[in-house]
């Protein structure tokens, strides 16, 4: 080990998953070496736990992980939650109404399920790329019956983008919006809709308190705006070469891009 780090926190899309929607052999091997050396590896993603299951399986990871941009910290195997921040049900109902009136693709998530009202190209992406199956149900009923942790608006045209911005402005201060992309679908924006109390940084603090790991012993790697709060508090903050400019300003260092196994390069350079 090059430094006394105890925890490696890694984003998924644009960090581990490249433009072909796969994790490189180099990154896979590097993660395995980190675990073998005795460090914990935690995924920190805007994805739901169910959409991250195959990544966890591929990397042979267990334990606690951060999902929904930090709204949920859970051990997917045991279902034990460390931290959760759901969305106020009245705000969820208002968001559903806005999406319907403006014909926006809007879905809802609980800790274990993904809900939509109808089939669409956006649902096809969820099936094909994120490997999750929807539950088709009236979203008003879902809101009444379930604890909603995240909603998502999915857009790909300038007109849809304008509506999404209007949506964001309407709920400014009441809901938090993080715009994310994945290299596999560069023309599609996935807009996570969560409680304004949520951030990956807060989730990491909650997890580290349980694991009794000081922030100085955390290495965090990410590429998006939703990783800013994460990298701000990590002992070693690593931005991907393909990251947004905002992330570079809070990172201690920049590694290779996702298509050149930036995670493996960072591990080689700073950990093992």
Describe the protein.
With 272 residues, the chain is α/β, with parallel strands linked by helices. It has 2 domains: 7-84 and 198-270, 3-Layer(aba) Sandwich (Rossmann fold); 89-194, Hypothetical Protein, Haloacid Dehalogenase-like Hydrolase, Chain: A, domain 2. The protein is 35% helix and 21% strand. It contains 10 helices and 14 strands. The strands form 3 sheets. A 6-stranded mixed β-sheet has the order 8-7-6-9-11-10, with helices on one face. A 5-stranded parallel β-sheet has the order 2-1-12-13-14. The protein has a 3-stranded antiparallel β-sheet with strand order 3-4-5, with helices on one face. Helix 1 (25-36) packs parallel to helix 10 (262-270) and helix 3 (89-101) packs antiparallel against helix 5 (139-145). The relative contact order is 0.19.
List the keywords.
Hypothetical Protein, Haloacid Dehalogenase-like Hydrolase, Chain: A, domain 2; five-stranded parallel β-sheet; 272 residues; Rossmann fold
Placed side by side, the strands forming the largest sheet appear as: 8-7-6-9-11-10
**CATH second-level architecture of the largest domain:** 3-Layer(aba) Sandwich
Main sheet properties: 6 strands, mixed
Give the fraction of residues assigned to helices.
Answer: 25-40%
Q: Output the number of helix runs.
A: 10
User: Structural class of the secondary elements?
Assistant: alpha/beta
